[in-house]
Automatic annotation (TrEMBL):
Species: Streptomyces lateritius
Coiled coil: 169-207
Protein's name according to its UniProt entry: histidine kinase
Catalysed reaction, written as an equation: ATP + protein L-histidine = ADP + protein N-phospho-L-histidine
Transmembrane stretches, start-end: 35-53, 89-116, 146-168
Length: 412
């Protein structure tokens, strides 16, 4: 322990207990609550002093009574300095209360301030000094209405109660501060997990875009190679191959615009020629869920014609992948958290109006299994829909089940 630490109790409270966010050399400003507490302690000290003065005036002369009243008033006024010098004010008032009972209330208020603001060791020293002072006061300025032994016991009990009350307030403040810090830390960790989930979702989207882009470029290279090795091909075949190359290049440029700004996870490889699922793969996904034991109702109505497949082909590939992932996540969640229920997947939309995807399952009839998870998949879906220019909502349904709804743009 350094010399400064050994004598820290002699320093003003503004120097010994200054918060970290308070500028150096400045005391923290009092709040409205601080003013109210100080005013209440001042009134209580004045009330206790008046009671003590009333019980001792009959044994003292007028001069002594006047001096006691002046000392009591000064002691009450000194309480306004207890926040800056808690230990110093408490020592002075405790010593004065030994010969001036009217300062006893102010001494107890100062002792309470020490118990609230200072460590346990300093509080114990001040409590012991207060017990000695109250005991000595019984013999120096006795109260005629109390037996000396009873007065000593009352003084000790009151001192212990005030000290315990102050320490309890200090412990409660420390507990509240610890809980507040823990809540802030938990909130920061939650935000960090959400950011990590968003980053993982972006990386997954980037990998899918990379794979699709590689697939398109592979097709473009194949058709370009066919034109190179068949320069004598009929004009119709050359025109058809040129059209395929043009369309593939246009789609590759669109995918390249989407992948800009999204990072690929380092150290991960991918099969560049592997095509990713699209809207046309939704039927296969539903069939896989049905084979796994989940009852699925698929309702597709694109451009007002639920039986047509041409509209599905007209949906942009990136939007179709997002629809597929949303339906996949909805079916997976229903299978984990509501097994045995019927899942409804509804897809509606037309060019210019956008696509609407809804996945709904009712509440499970049996016990709900506990499946570990923190909803990171839904966070990733929300990030995916936002990057696609749409929005996604999820939560409990009115019938007690769970609903997942998303809107995605579909250019005209």
């Amino acid at each position: 322990m350094t010399r400064t630490d050994r004598h820290a109790w002699l320093l003003p409270s503004a120097m010994a207990d200054t918060p970290a966010d308070t500028p150096p050399g400045r005391r923290p400003r009092r709040t409205v609550r601080d003013w109210l507490v100080d005013a209440l302690l001042f009134l209580l000290a004045a009330f206790v002093g008046l009671l003590a003065a009333d019980s001792t005036d009959q044994l003292n002369s007028e001069a002594v009574a006047l001096a006691d009243q002046l000392v009591g008033a000064a002691a009450c006024c000194a309480l306004w300095l207890r926040r800056r010098w808690p230990v110093g004010v408490a020592v002075v008032l405790t010593v004065i209360s030994t010969v001036a009972p009217v300062a006893g209330g102010a001494a107890l208020a100062a002792l309470f301030g020490v118990a609230v603001r200072r460590p346990v060791r300093e509080t114990a020293v001040m409590g012991a000094l207060a017990v000695v002072s109250s005991t000595a006061q019984v013999f120096l300025r006795p109260d005629p209405s109390l037996h000396p032994a009873a007065a000593v016991v009352v003084g000790i009990v009151v001192t212990l109660l005030v000290t315990a009350w102050g320490m309890l307030v200090r412990s409660r403040r420390q507990l509240v501060e610890a809980l507040r810090e823990r809540a802030h830390r938990a909130e920061a960790e939650t935000e960090l997990r959400a950011e990590q989930a968003q980053r993982l979702a972006r990386e997954a989207i980037a990998r899918e875009m990379h794979d699709v882009l590689a697939h398109r470029l592979t097709l473009l290279s194949v058709h370009a190679g066919a034109l190179e090795f068949r320069p004598d091909a009929p004009p119709a075949q050359v025109a058809r191959a040129a059209g395929v190359i043009r369309d593939s290049a246009h789609e590759a440029l669109q995918d390249l615009r989407e992948i800009i700004g999204v990072l690929r996870a380092p150290g991960e490889g991918g099969d560049g020629d592997r095509p990713q699922p699209t809207l046309a793969s939704l039927d296969t996904l539903v069939e896989e869920s049905r084979r796994a034991g989940t009852e699925v109702v698929l309702d597709i109505g694109l451009d007002g014609d639920p039986e047509s497949g041409e509209e599905s082909a007209a949906v942009p590939a990136a939007t179709g992948r997002t629809v597929y992932r949303i339906a996949q996540e909805g079916l997976t969640n229903a299978r984990k958290h509501a097994p045995g229920t019927e899942v409804t997947v509804i897809l509606r939309g037309r060019p210019g109006d956008g696509l609407t995807v809804e996945v709904h399952n009712p509440a499970p009839t049996g016990p709900v299994p506990h499946v570990p998870g923190s909803g990171q998949g839904l966070i990733g879906l929300t990030e995916r829909a936002t990057l696609a220019g749409g929005r996604l909502e999820h939560g409990p349904a009115p019938d007690g089940g769970f609903a997942l709804s998303a809107w995605l743009p579909w250019p005209p």
